[in-house]
Amino acid sequence: MNEPYGWWLPINISANGAPIDQLITTLHWFMVLLFIGWGIFFLYCLFRFRARPGHQADASPKHFRLPTYLEVGVALFEVFLLVFISYPIWSKVKNDMPSDEEAMVVRVTAEQFAWNIHYAGKDGIFGQTSPDLISPEDNNPIGLDRENDPNAKDDIISINVMHFPVNKKVKVYLSSKDVIHSFGIPVMRVKQDAIPGTVIPVWFEANKTGTFEIMCAQLCGVGHTRMRGEIHVDTEEEFQKWLQDEAQYLDEYSDAGQREDDSDV
Amino acid sequence: MSSHHEEGFIRKYIFSTDHKVIGIQYGLGAMFFLLMGFGLMLMMRWQIAFPGKSIPFIGKLLTQDGILSPELYNQFGAMHGTIMVFLGVVPMAVGAFGNYLLPLQVGAQDMAFPKLNMASFWVFFVGGLVMLYSFLLPGGAAQSGWTSYPPLSNIAPAGQTAWLIGMVFLITSSLLGSVNIIVTAVQLRVPGLSFFRLPFLVWAQLVTSFLLLLAFPPLEAAGVLQLMDRVFGTSFFMPSGLVVSGQALEVSGGGNPLLWQHLFWFLAHPEVYVLILPALGIVAEIVATNTRKPLYGYNTAVYAIIFLGFMSFIVWAHHMFMTGMGTGMSAFFQATTMIISIPSVIVLTVLLLTLWGASIRFTVPMLFALAFLPMFAIGGLTGLPLGLTASDIYLHDTYYVIGHFHYVVAPGTLMALMGGVYHWYPKITGRMFNKTLGKLHFWGTFIGMNGIFAPMFFIGMAGVSRRLYDATIYEMARSVQPLNVIMTYSSWLLAAAQVLFLINIFASLRKPKEAAADNPWEATTLEWAAPTPPLPHQNFPEPLEAYRGPYEYNTTSREFAPQHLQEA
Ligand code: HEM
Ligand SMILES: [Cu+2]
Ligand SMILES: [Cu+2]
């Protein structure tokens, strides 16, 4: 399939996605099979036991064995899916977090109705943030303390566009400024609610480059539908280039800011 | 109890304590709200299929350009869910069917507490009015989803306050009603009607009422807490440091938004069984009557729904898998969710196996009951990928979820309820409905429902979130947009079919009464032993006794042996 999106699962570009897709596919085959088998029996009964002259219901007590076996079979299959497929996937995806050293760390702070993507910048250290400093007018959507915290000076903030390199673990610290959102990247088989007051780590690793969509998966107000973001999965070189461009832009911007401040005096 | 003084119109039809009148009041009220919930959805479906186009005919009444605004979309969505669940299906399934049929089926003269019963209806009525009134408030009705998650709901316009007050009334009404049903089913059974001779519908109502009684109070409490947050500035659900549109929010903070979700789903999961159990009961009655044989495995089915009732209290967090749950918690709630699927499968199997060896009459109610079975099966099966957390990571909060639960509650429960209306219509009114219209209604409903809900699985599978005002800004949604158009046309078909239904049930009232309406289906349970309609405040001219189980069809020398006849 070349098209990323269609009438079934979209393209998977996540290193963790294959088992999830496999589970979804297996489950649907299982469901379709059960439903068809069941449906054939149902329709056969409707036909064979339809009321008609000369036909009388047979109400003598019966005991069917087969359905019991089938039910036990289905239950065992569910146990199998649970223990051998679902538990391990979940603990890998949601619990076995790579350490901050192993992965590229990004902070994502959701707000009505945008994704603020926060990179630590050249120094690799995230600057302090504080809700008091949040100011959309000053281009400071997450309240980064660029004034006082030297670590904050080089931090990069990108709105709705998240760049990261292919074949590298990415660890996102997810939070929200206002209401609950949900960080959903369908092609990455990633979904995690962003809950104000808590920071929740999410990790993933892309194995294909390209541009794909982020979709907010939790109703967050009138602009919920507009809360569309993009992931840009870059090659390592492209990603470094993007970081440099952003850093340069930041320098120019803060210089400009400096000059404005001066002229005020 | 027999000879009654004449009652005036008001005592007889408005402030009545007769369970049958109250049942009909609930039925008409619920029907109004079901149609309203559906009407809201028709407007939303227009916007989903044809985003940014003005709604024909009625659009201009809503907004200047006739286009549904995102504010209205969110209000209609939240109120569709609320209305359908709390003002439509529950009042219909428990309020109408429970009230009308349960005392008759246990052979009682009325509910155990007739005045409480009347109070329950009027509290429901007030709750409904508050919900309707909320549309007129500045900022409109509640718009944070039927789930009302804070902080969003806490900072929403005044409609949310009305929603909470309305919910407090509706919950109170359900609590009063459920106490009545439990006591009636336990205490007022006629002699001989032991628990295992109760019609399956009575069992279903009994378990349902226990769920309502035990699950609703936490939501009522949570509703009051949210009300305090909104009105008195507490912060039960509000963490510190919130910044909304660049402005720091003036709240004391320190609360936790997830607390609401736990309290909400602690109700709302049992609630889905409240929506489905009475439907299963109705289907069981119709199936037994129209297969002309006893239910296969009646006892098993009864144990299954009791077990289901217990289990439904320990699965709630499967709605919260994406809130940051660790492996242990998620493992527990996945396991309970898999376990709860088993009793549902058992009940479905019982109904299916009842068909074996039957003599199936394809009456109008039976068509609905039969269609219920595969629809419920689809709803149940598609719950599997949502109950396993690994697949839920992808499917959570997509249209797949909407497809899943609607298969349970719309082509499932709604069709069962429609079948129930046809099945008991002759007993309630003394008339027979028009069968041809009934069949047309059935096929229109069946095709319409599937045309709406089946495509949702594909849309969800493509990754599209629910509650989107205009999904077409997403590339992944544009690829499935043709399905949305099909769904919207199907919803018109569904609407057209309901017109036939309304014509049928109201126009048939003008026919002359038929004597045959006493027991037109040759059914065995006690309600059919009553005169048509059953006597006010008394039901049966003489007290009855029950001599056998509920579904003795073709088990004796008689084709059917009513429960109240001594000779077999
Ligand atoms: C029969 C016609 C029905 C149609 C065409 C219909 C359609 C829909 C659609 C398309 C949505 C998704 C809207 C969105 O995500 O933006 C929805 C949501 C919902 N529906 Fe229905 N539905 C019907 C009946 C019912 C019934 C009978 C119930 C409950 C008993 C119900 C309960 C809900 C709930 C709880 C939601 C979620 C609302 C929310 O997002 O907060 N619906 N419905
Ligand atoms: Cu959002
Ligand atoms: Cu649930």
Based on secondary structure, the structural category of chain A is alpha+beta
Please report which band the strand proportion of chain B falls in: under 5%, 5-15%, 15-25%, 25-35%, 35-45% or over 45%.
under 5%
The first-to-last residue Cα distance of chain A is 61 Å
Biggest interface, chains and residues, is:
A-B, 92 and 96 residues
Give the helices and strands of chain B as they follow along the chain: HHHHHHHEEHHHHHHHHHH
The backbone outline of chain A, from C-alpha atoms, is elongated
CATH class of the largest domain in chain A: Mainly Beta
- What fraction strand of chain A? 15-25%
Bound molecules: protoporphyrin IX containing FE, copper (II) ion
Spell out the CATH superfamily of the largest domain in chain A.
Cupredoxins -  blue copper proteins
How can the largest sheet of chain A be summarized?
5 strands, mixed
Under the CATH scheme, which class of chain B?
Mainly Alpha
Report on this model:
The complex is a heterodimer of chains A (265) and B (568). With 265 residues, chain A is an alpha+beta fold. Chain A is 34% helix and 23% strand. Chain A has two domains: 17-95; 104-264, Immunoglobulin-like. Chain A is built from three helices and ten strands. In chain A, the strands form two sheets. In chain A, strands 3-2-1-5-8 form a five-stranded mixed beta sheet. The relative contact order of chain A is 0.13. A two-stranded antiparallel ribbon of chain B has the order 1-2. In chain B, a hairpin with a 2-residue loop joins strand 1 and strand 2 (247-248). The longest helix of chain B has 36 residues, at 70-105. Chain B is globular and about 80 Å long. Chain B starts with 8 loop residues before the first helix and ends in a 61-residue tail after the last helix. At the A-B interface, helix 1, helix 2, strand 7 and strand 9 of A face helix 4, strand 1, helix 8, helix 10 and helix 11 of B. The structure holds protoporphyrin IX containing FE and copper (II) ion (CU) (2 copies).
